Amino acid sequence: MSLQMDAAELMEFLNEVFPQVQEDFAVEGLSETEISMRLCVQEKHLRPGGTVSGPSMFALADCAAYAMVLARIGRKALAVTTSCSMDFMRKPVAGGDLIATCKLLKLGRSLAVCDILIHSVGQEAAVARASMTYSIPPTR
């Protein structure tokens, strides 16, 4: 199966269905099996000390996996996260943007499995890792 949405279409759809986070994320790259997504860090994403909060990193991982799945299956807003395991490995760079690289490991009829690594921009070592499973709505 090839891409059903390109980066611009993904961002348009995400902004339409999740207007509350319209300025938070940007697609940096997209292929049939991988997406890179940026968290455009703002004050609301920071915890005391100026580093990006865990919930913001979770949101980035979740959004990257959701976008990867949608890129392959098309405009299906009801695809939902069914499972997530996340490891926070090191402190992100204070106030800097984060990049999530999401790899689609499996795309079935009803489930998709993704692995996500999150890095601070300009840093090689990952700050977090997530494994996510999405439920895909049945085709009618």
From TrEMBL:
Keywords: Hydrolase. Its EC number is 3.1.2.-. InterPro entries: HotDog_dom_sf, PAAI_dom, Thioestr_dom. It is an enzyme of class 3 (hydrolase). One of its GO terms (molecular function) is acyl-CoA hydrolase activity. Residues 49-123 form the Thioesterase domain. It holds the Pfam family 4HBT. SUPFAM superfamilies: Thioesterase/thiol ester dehydrase-isomerase (SSF54637). It comes from the Bacteria. This is PaaI family thioesterase.
